[in-house]
Structures are given as C-alpha cells and as structure tokens.
Amino acid sequence: MSTGRFGVRAGVRDWAIAVCVAAVLLVTGLSGQHSATSIDLLGYALLAAGGLALAAGRRAPVPVLAVTGLCAVGYQAAGFDVPAVAYLFAVYAAVRAGHRTLTIVASFAMLAALPVAALVSGLHDMGEALAQSRGALEIAWLIAAGAAGEALRQAERRADEAERTREETARRRADEERLHIARELHDSLVHQISIIKVQSEVAVHLARKRGEKVPEALLAIQQAGREATRELRATLEALRDDDTTPPHGLDDVPELVERSRTSGLDSTLTIEGQRRDVPSAVERTVYRIVQESLTNIARHAAATSASVHIGYRADALSVRVDDDGKATPGAAPAPGVGLLGMRERVTALGGRLRAEPRGEGGFTVQAELPVEPTS
Questions:
Q1: How far is Cα 215 from Cα 204, in angstroms, rounded to an integer?
Q2: In the chain, at which residue ranges do the beta strands (DSSP E only) sit?
Q3: pTM of the entire structure?
Q4: Which of 61, 116, 325, 366 is 20 to 30 Å from the Cα of 344, by its Cα?
Q5: Residue 179's CB: how many other CB atoms inside 10 A?
Q6: What mean pLDDT do residues 242-268 have?
C-alpha cells in the first residue's frame, strides 16, 4: 500500500482537511449574532469538534459519520444556522469505505432530526424550521457526496482487482516457465551427465581391479560427474518446488538438522519468538536456506559443528546458520549456484541475505524475510 493512501502523507492531508472544515464552520458560526452564553460556547465547541473529527474519517468512517451528525444536530439546536459541511465529508468517507446502507439510514435520520433541532433552538414555526434544516443539509449535497464516494470506491475496487489478476497471471506464467526449464534440463543434461558419471566410475573400477594406476584426469571426471549430478538434482528439485506438490516448510527443518547429525556434524536448532503462521513461500525459502547451508557445510567447510537459529518477530522471520569451519575472516565468499539461489529466493520476497565468514572463524548465512504483522 502506498504512502499516499495510508501513510504519513494521507494523515497530514486528513488533518489539513479537518482543520480547514473546522475553521470554516467556526467562522460561519461567529458571523451570526451570538453572545457568550454557555449554550453559545457549547455550539462553538460542537462546530470545532464536528470539523476536527474528520481527521479520523479514513480509519473510522462510521464513528466519524455519527460524531459529525450529532455535532450538526447539536449546534443547530444551540441556534447556529450553519451548513452541515463536516457531515457531508463524513458521508463521502463512509460511502467510499463501503458503508452505503448505514450512510443512507444515518442521512434520513439527519433529515428528520434537523427540523426538530431547529425548533429546539427557538423557532416556533414549523415552516421556518424546515427551511433552516433544508439550508443546513441540502439533499442534493448528500446525493453528490454519496455518489462521489461510491464512484471512487468502485474505481479503487476495479484497480485492485486488475492488479490482483495481473499478479496471478504473472505468477502462473513464471510457474509454467520454471517447469519448462526443469523439463529441458532433465531431458538435455541429466541423461548425458549420468552417462559420463557411470562410464567414469566403471573405468575407475576396472583400472583398480586390474591394479593399474587411475589417471588423475579420470578421477577428476568422476568427481565432477558426481558434483554435477547433485547440483542438477538440487536445481531441478528447486525448479519443480511449486504449489502443486506438498512443499517443504518450517516443520521439516528439524528433520534437516537431525539428518546432518547422522552424517557426523554436531548440529543444533534454536527457535525464538512465538510460532505463528507465515506465507508458504517464506517457509519454503527458510527450508531451502537451511538445507543448502547444511549441505555446503558438510561438503566444503570442514566443520565439526553448526547451529541453526530461527527467530519470529512481529514483522519478519529471521534465519541464521553458523559453522566453525575453515572460512577465513574477511575473505569474500566464493560465488556458487547454491548461494546465488538463496539470494534470489530471499530478494524475490523482499528480504535481505548476508553470507560471509565470521570474525571468530567459520561461516554464517543470515536472512531476514518480511511477513505481514499479526493484528
């Protein structure tokens, strides 16, 4: 949501309108013949309160509609023949917020209450009371304010619907493209690399069986084939990880940590904050970060221990994976497919990722993913 609608600028604009309306009402009231009696002071207070109440019209349109209506009836009863301008603004805000039926009922109540208030103010002729109330609240003004609010509400609803449709279409196309890439990779690369891997392993096995020295180039091909197979499988799994299959999430992180323990890495998991529901995309990203980090630690870090920390905050979910491996403090991390994939996932969700050697030794991967605050 933009600042212009619900941020600081919108609040300043609401207060500016409220102050201006209150000033207009007070100036109009002061232009009449009024003394400094307690009733007149009450009328001035109601004029000011009715205008200033508009500052909350965006956040609480129905209460503001009631307050401005009561203030208008009150200062009419106190003898102030001042148009109900604040109430018209409140009608506009209430209709824009979607409270059409309630606004119509409140407006009919105002039309009935204003003549009574005019009679209470001292008028003894019903015709004069009706004329004064008609001048205070013209039906045409009500219709115009209501129509303007309804038109703007409909326009905003159509704009929101169009934006939602565009986002859904873009997400569907992205999913289709991701699956297409996964199929292409599987058909064109996995089969060929599997053949290279199998042939190299057979050649190494036969050479050792005959007692021959295995060439370094053949061993390099064998190792590269294994690494490429693992990387491709991880890439394909990530590409196919969409909403059509049960996704891995936060509930699966303890299994990852336990699996790393069975492979000889002393791993711990710490969860802080109150557990609450987060978007599935955030859950999948946290799972992938922990999975990729623990895999890299086992393969490359020469570490003996690792710690996984997940923290729940009001507006974010944080994850940190530390190890005590051989990373040199101050050295730039070597770019890799895993780290690049983690960064892309985090950035796509509007979060931040930091991956670097720790000052006390080892390596750290830290991510912060924004989530909607709980109400």
A1: 9
A2: 266-272, 305-312, 316-323, 352-357, 363-370
A3: 0.42
A4: 325
A5: 14
A6: 79
